[in-house]
Amino acid sequence: MELTPEITDRLLKLEEKYTAMGQDMGSYLDGLLYADFLTYWDYIHLDTLLSLQNPKTPFPDEEIFIMYHQITELYFKLTLHECRQIAEHTELTAAFFTTRVKRINAYFNALTTSFEVMVDGMDKEQFLKFRMSLLPASGFQSGQYRMIEICATDFNRLVDKSKRTELANASIEEQFEHIYWKFGATELASGKQTLTLKQFIKKYAGQFLQLAKERVATNFSALYLQLQAKGEDVSALAEELRKLDLYVNVEWPLSHYKSAVRYLEKDPVDVAATGGTNWQKYLPPRFQKRIFYPYLWTEEQMEEWGKGWVLEVLKSQRREK
């Protein structure tokens, strides 16, 4: 084979690279000579990935339940990957910020539009049986989802709405004691913390508090206001942040609410969710009124937050029964 000027140039650049690192280029070329070609299945660890579904019961639809939750967590990991790029960018611009939030919105769009798999993609009787083997585990215990919330907004906006004003200037530790999702994991009968919640706090509380402190000035809300104050054009960014607000605080919890109504609502008594979470009060957006970017919405929009969506879900589910 002829050593063209292009190949010679590349070899010289490789030699410069390895010399700068104190390495011998010849040794690396030997490695290339003996290395096998990369395959798709090895690159993404396909065999390992496909071995990670381990149902606890013989019901076939439990495997659907497992795989969809695994897919969800991978999308959350993609989202946190974008969150880090935004927060850690040394010279953040509105354009870069907007592009990355668009990616996040694409991930959540994929999640919300595919959630019909959970609403109608499993046999109801199978679900009500295999879910009992999962106690006290619950999708409530997704640590990555809580991290996304922390990255997206000022921490005080994640405080239960009854305490937000009172704790506006409190420490992160104090605010964490009243974070909204703790009130969604109380025992329906006694009002005590569920084992689901106790497990969750034990595993993740330290990580959540650390991340919240790291993101005081680099959460999406803080960064948006900083760019706006610098005089950057943030109109496109504002539109993407509004979409994110709806995806995370309305569409995603509402998708779960539809699933809960489908599988857990029965007359005369509702079935408790896996882990005992109070899904009737915890999931509907109109009850929680979590809004990441209130300055991007009108008073009327915030007053009506989530109401229309929830009412429509209830109507449609009633019609299907």
UniProtKB/TrEMBL annotation:
One of its GO terms (molecular function) is metal ion binding. It comes from the Bacteria. The keyword Thylakoid does not apply. InterPro entries: Trp/Indoleamine_2_3_dOase-like, Trp_2_3_dOase. Gene3D superfamilies: 1.20.58.480. GO terms for biological process: L-tryptophan catabolic process to acetyl-CoA; L-tryptophan catabolic process to kynurenine. This is Tryptophan 2,3-dioxygenase.
